[in-house]
Fold this protein.
Amino acid sequence: MSSTNRSNCRDTHVSDYYKTPVSEILLFLDNVNSDIIKGDVLDPCAGGIRERESMSYVEALEQHELEVNSITSIDIREDSCAQIIGDYLQIDCKNKYDTIITNPPFSIAQKIIEKALDDIKESGHVIMLLRLNYFESKLRKKFFENYMPKYCFVYHNRLSFTPDGKTDSIAHAHFIWQEGFHPEFTMLKVI
C-alpha cells in the first residue's frame, strides 16, 4: 500500500491508531542496549483494544528479558485496554519514568516527544517509533537543533501496520533521546 493510500484510509483509524507489530518491537529490543530500557516504563499511546487486542509495547516488553520494574500504559481511545484512559498531553505525570516508549500519532509526535522529555528521570530515555523521514521538515529543524536523538534504529524492511501484511513506501525507525544529552548528530544502526 502506498503512503498516499495509507493516508487516505486514516478515517478508519481512530486517533491515528495503527497497531505496531510485536515481532518488530522484539527485533528492536534484541538490538538495543539493555541499559536503555529499564526501571519504570511508560507507554503513553498504548493502543490495544479491550478483550480483542493486546498493547504491542507492553506485550513485547513483558516477553523480553529486561530489567523493568513496572510498565504503565496510557491511551486516549475509550476502547483501549490501557491502565489509564486519557490524553497523555493533558495528564500530569507526577512520577518520572526511566523509559518512555511508544508509537505516537504522527500528527502530534513532536508534542508527545517534548512532553516525554519532561516526564523522564535524569538520564532517562525517550523512544519513539517514527517514519525515518521524520528527520525531514523545515518545521522540525529547530526541534532537532535542540533535541537531536542519541540513536536511531532503522528497520531494513518495510513495516506492516495492517492485518493483510501489506506495506507502504515508508521506512520506519526507533528514535532514542536521552534526557540531558543532545548530540550534534545521531548514531544510526540498521536492524
